[in-house]
Specification:
Distance between the termini: 19 Å
Radius of gyration: 17 Å
Number of domains: 1
Shape: globular
CATH superfamily: Aldolase class I
CATH topology: TIM Barrel
Number of strands: 12
Helix content: 25-40%
Order of helices and strands: EEEHEHHEHEHHEEEHEHEHEHH
Strand content: 25-35%
Length: 259
């Protein structure tokens, strides 16, 4: 049985880790390189860094930060936000990241997924999606509408249709971040995660809403996620990655053991 991955997420603003609820009321949490090194030492499987204002502000990703993280950790990590094309992707990968996450850019220019997969391999291309639950099933048959630019703009894309299209274009993984659950620590949106996981053939990463180890167990067991992103529950110091893994193992969830 494939083991499940636990991936701390560090939302970056002005080269500081920040955390809020649905990208609002954010508070400063610390230096991203120091936090990455701490989570690496505690046993995380991967890391992901999102520059949460780069797309809205239409500026480039901080390559120096990416390189500093690559020197501090020896596990795969993904970078998203501020990616405008293949040149930016190349710089991020050469700086030491293993994966590129595209979200708003992929919606406005879907061909970038195919171009990135061709240039660097599908394993490098991660589609990040921010679906919002909606009642209009005539326009959005899945019940979820894709938003972009940090939840600031709604699109005409249905979440499931977009996930399937991204897979066809060459995405190697999909991060499903629930707008409604983001930052709430009330649990992942299981129905949304299961919907995507059961209808694509590539790994699906659950994101948004983790508050305790039981939430991870549920999204792995009941929604078939291949990995889970966590943030507030470890940023607060309430849980450690080692402790989370121990609880998941006790619950019968196959997890990775580094040592």
């Amino acid at each position: 049985m494939l083991t499940k991955r636990i991936i701390p997420c560090l939302d970056i603003r002005s080269r500081r880790v920040t955390k809020g609820v649905r990208f609002q009321h954010n508070v400063d949490l610390g230096d991203p390189v120091e936090m990455a090194a701490r989570y690496y030492a505690d046993g995380c499987d991967e890391l992901v860094f999102y520059d949460i204002t780069a797309s809205a502000e239409r500026r480039a990703i901080d390559i120096d930060m990416v390189a500093a993280v690559a020197r501090a950790v020896h596990i795969p990590f993904a970078v998203g936000g501020g990616i405008s094309g293949l040149d930016d992707m190349r710089r991020v990968l050469l700086a030491g990241a293993e994966k590129i996450s595209v979200n708003s850019l992929a919606v406005t220019n879907p061909q970038i997924i195919a171009d990135g997969a061709k240039a660097f391999g599908s394993q490098c291309m991660v589609l990040g999606m921010d679906p919002l639950a909606v009642a209009d099933r005539s326009r959005f048959p899945s019940g979820y509408q894709i938003t972009i630019r940090g939840f600031r703009e709604r699109t005409d894309l249905d979440a499931l249709e977009w996930a399937r299209r991204a897979e066809r274009l060459g995405a190697g993984e999909i991060v499903v971040n629930s707008v409604d659950a983001d930052g709430t620590r009330q649990g992942y949106e299981l129905g949304l995660t299961r919907l995507i996981a059961e209808n694509v053939g590539i790994p699906v990463v659950a994101s948004g809403g983790a508050g305790c180890p039981a939430h991870l167990a549920a999204v792995f067991r009941d929604a078939h996620a291949d990995a889970a992103i966590i943030a507030g529950m470890i940023h607060s110091g309430e849980y450690t990655i080692a402790g989370i893994k121990a609880e998941l193992a006790q619950a019968g969830i196959p997890i990775r053991k580094r040592w």
